[in-house]
Amino acid sequence: MPPEAVHPGQLGGEQGLLTRLAAPGVLRSAILVAATVLVALTWTRNVNWDEFFFLSQVHENLAGTLNRPLQTVFVHAFGWLAHVPGHEMGQMVAARLVMTLLFAGTVLSIHRISRRLAGRQAADVAVIAFLTSGFALAHGTSFRADPIAAALLMGALALMMTTRMSAWQIVAVALLSAGGLLVTVKAVFYLPAFLAAIAWRWGDRGAVLRILLAGVIALAVAVGLYAWHAAGIEAAPENQTSATAGRALSRTLLDAGLVPRKREVTLWGLLSLGAVVLALLGLIAPGSRRDRLVRLGLVLPLLLSVLFYRNAFPYFFAFITPPMMVVAAIGASRLGRGPALGALVALMLVTGAGQAGKALSEGAGLQRATLAEVHRLFPEPVPYIDHNAMVASFPREGFFMSTWGIERYRDGGQPVMAAQIARLAPPLLLANRWALHQALTSEEVQHHPMLLLPEDQDALRATYVHYSGVIWLAGRELVLGGQPETVALPIPGRYRVETDGPLEIDGAEMRDGMTLEIDGPITVSGPAGTRLRLVWSTDAPQDRNALPQGGVYAGFWQLPF
Prior knowledge:
Shape: elongated
């Protein structure tokens, strides 16, 4: 019910500071500031590894090498990104701007439903609650499936709950729902919210039947589009739909235990305290049985997912919490325009401002410089090894080195790097994950559940030398012992000689800065103690000081305990 109908007495009286904080002008000004921050973050915000991986799937589809059909239908909508100038970072900014528009669609859906259930002022509060909730500013517009699916599913929910479900609205709900399901199977978490929409419309049986019809059409469209998409992909055996879905179900739900992401959930709760309090007030608000079922259905997507879902990482919350914000609007309507609501708005604005400052401070400058240097060294694409397909426009094989990916790799117990190097001859490696950095920099094999297998650590150390930042190039470093030594480089090609003294390679005198073609074992001889570094030769001049040391990813926010 609108607050004007429930608490008319609270609308008058002296307007204190806290009361004024909940005034419509203040709320809408805060929304405008948040929108400005979101647009700025498209350029400044550090790109997460998942975003680069998402972009790489677009390039794989264009190259005809995409080998996983499940959850990759989105690639057909983003092929244009390959034509955006500015290498991967320029493409990421363009993609994030699209995500920002989708995020705006999610916000509008929250406001539309909230206005119908709780009134306009409460709807404004719900939008503030969402924008300032944990991780929303930092991850709500990141380039991944979550913002796309949230916008589509919330759009469908808004139509179901606020329109008469005419013929075109039935089609729109069907297409939006099908799109959300095709983008990510996590769309199933929205099922309680969709049931809440049916409960909300239960008094209008015609509308209920039209919603059910839209659901049937949505499933048919989803099946048809997925069949069309999958038909154009030659899926690897391990990436067949049934195998991928089975692994995902087992790993992310069945084997995860209760509240598998306790730290993330706790941090989200602390950052979203104002929204949580409002949602609790809305949940326990008096009303009919139908009203209580609707509210419960809108909060269940969050409650059920955090109980069982392994991948409830920070970016997940901006996807799963929009339905709950409608319940927060109902809580705001209970408080009316008094100081209590103003205090909660103040709390939300403070936590939101803190998150905005943190997100803005996590810049993408080093990522931008790293990718610019990669493209300067290699104007044409070359195979490479890294954590997550950061150079999305270059061909890459190998597993995605997420925690889940490394767990699967170690469960298999089979080394992969030596065979990958022999097959692809990748002259470039980006040590953009701890497992890769450790393998290349530790003098001895290290053992840890999140590290590469010992054989793979050895294979990488024998193949690559450090260039600058996280960039490593094919090569070898050694100190001569006074006797001829045979050196085998796994990757054939042209190498540059860097040495601090005279030496011979295969009987030919070599000096610092010279290059030679190597396609097999070579014999190196020279005075004992002479340092030799063979490094992959590029047409562009090499500058080992081009990039600073340090990781390229800011990572997820975490509690210090």
